[in-house]
Amino acid sequence: MIAELSPADKAKFAAARRAVDFVEDGMRLGLGTGSTAAWMVKCLGNRVRNEGLKIRGVPTSSRTAALAADCGIEVITLDQAGWLDLTIDGADEFDADYRLIKGGGGAHLQEKIVAAASDRMLVITDPSKDVATLGAFPLPLEVIPFGMETTRRLVERVLADADVDGRGTAFRKAGEGLFVTDEGNHTLDLQLGRIGDPEGLSAALNAIPGVVENGLFMNICDVIVIGHEDGRAVTRQKGKGGEEETRLDFAEEDKLFQADN
Ligand code: 5RP
Q1: Atom 4 of ligand 1, nearest CA residue
Q2: CA of residue 33 to ligand 1 center, whole Å
Q3: pTM (two decimals)
Q4: Does one domain contain both 184 and 243?
Q5: Containing domain of residue 182, as a range?
Q6: Which of 34, 103, 189, 248 could form a disulfide with 215 if both were Cys (CB 3.0 to 4.6 A apart)?
Q7: Last residue of a domain, one of 176, 194, 213
Q8: Is the pLDDT of residue 259 over 80?
Q9: Does one domain contain both 123 and 26?
Q10: Whose CA is nearest to atom 10 of ligand 1?
């Protein structure tokens, strides 16, 4: 199963598998959303079954909640948890300053609330998402349905004065209709190409009343694990220079997953 994954999925798996080594008994965890985070939830489920690891997880989307429950992880709400020891989540882009674009899966609002309520945020990713400057990936905004076209015009005014290369905006579609988030809102994707001042742009966008939250994550992420298709996982930790590299044996992981899933 693992050995037969596509190279991209092997890289995601390698990052996810390495990330669950950071999880300790008794932890309250934020569980991210997306294809990389889904591997992390499955790997955590294996640790719960095989080692009797005791953890409680706060999912960042209804999709992750369903998967976590399927994997035997005790699911609680953020308010039941109060505070979290660690959040593990994916990202669409990351830069050398641990700044991220998230929200490709439409869950960045819950993801940011959960990450902000955690002692540490660990991001699981792959080399394709490592960028010198954020912005090639469309920046998502979660927008309230009421007055959404007016909100879009206000966003375009902010972009007119912003240090960006592109200014396209598009409400995200799902089939024939608009994509609806778990909170009942819509997602406005901004095609910016390059974001020269992520902090300034984030503050200006979040000051628009109809914008609930944008997908820029700054001063939140502490650890980045970059998975590679050959099983390597490279870990960068904020405040610690250098990188640490480990390597997975896909054949061994295969045995674990075949026995358990
Ligand atoms: C969801 C997210 C995801 O973490 C991000 O889109 C990365 O997803 P994937 O691991 O599938 O590439 O922010 O809102």
Answers
A1: 90
A2: 6
A3: 0.96
A4: no
A5: 139-213
A6: 103
A7: 213
A8: no
A9: yes
A10: 36
Mean pLDDT of the chain: 96
Q: Phi and psi at residue 43, in whole multiples of 5°?
A: -65, -40
Q: What is the pLDDT of residues 165-208, one digit of tens each?
A: 999 999 999 999 999 999 999 999 999 999 999 999 999 999 99
pLDDT of 105 above 90: yes
Structure tokens at 228: 């590679």
- Residues 54 and 126 placed together within one structural domain of the fold: yes
Q: How many angstroms does the Cα of residue 31 sit away from the middle of ligand 1? A: 12
Is 111 annotated in the active site? yes
Residues 152, 45 within the same domain: no
Mutate to test the pocket of ligand 1, among 33, 60, 185 (most ligand atoms within 8 A of CB): 33
Residue 197 gets which letter from DSSP? -
- The 3-class secondary structure across 152-189, one letter per residue, is HHHHHHHHHCCCECCCEEEECEECCEECCCCCCCEEEE
- The answer to whether 181 and 148 have CB atoms below 8 angstroms apart is no
Task: Say yes or no: 203 and 225 in one domain.
Answer: no
Is 32 touching ligand 1 by the criterion CB < 6 Å?
yes
Q: How far is the CA of 192 from the centre of ligand 1 (A)?
A: 18
Task: Answer yes or no: do 69 and 29 share one domain.
Answer: yes
Domain count along the chain: 2
